[in-house]
Design goal:
143 residues; Factor Xa Inhibitor; mainly beta; 8% helix; 7-stranded antiparallel β-sheet
């Protein structure tokens, strides 16, 4: 059996960036965890009065690209946390990019559906955000 090509790919060096120009992306925050989207598809029922053997019949419906979740080191008042707060307040669908350690990218348009902050007494402060993806994300393989 061939050796895995994933042997060196861990999440370290994954970058989340916000689109800031035509093809320009600005890295966002000190990311500590990134949850990638889980796509799903609706099922539409097409059962009729003579469906075979009394079973429901279904066809595939619309796809949903899911959500992206991010956790980052929180430094209150600094730009990274303010980017999410401003984005959340703006109600805009904006471009984002995830760049993986091997150079592959996942581009998506999305908007923040949640923004949180945690300041535990005995651990680092963290910020978090959830982005709902609008439309189809685009994965580009590493060059």
């Amino acid at each position: 059996m061939a050796e895995t090509v994933a042997a060196t790919d861990i999440g370290f060096k994954t970058i989340l960036s916000k689109k800031s120009g035509a093809n320009t992306y600005t890295p966002f925050a000190e990311i500590t965890e990134l949850t990638l989207p889980e796509m799903s598809r609706d099922s539409v029922q097409f059962t009729h009065m003579t469906s075979p053997d009394h079973f429901h019949e279904f066809k595939p419906g619309l796809a949903d690209a899911g959500e992206v979740g991010v956790t980052y080191n929180l430094v209150p008042g600094l730009a990274d946390d303010a980017v999410i707060a401003t984005h959340f307040a703006s109600r805009l669908v904006e471009g984002w990019r995830i760049t993986f350690p091997n150079g592959a990218t996942l581009d998506y348009n999305g908007f923040a559906t949640a923004h949180g902050r945690a300041t535990p007494i005995d651990d680092k402060m963290t910020g978090s955000a959830t982005f709902k993806i609008s439309g189809k994300p685009v994965m580009t393989p590493a060059a």
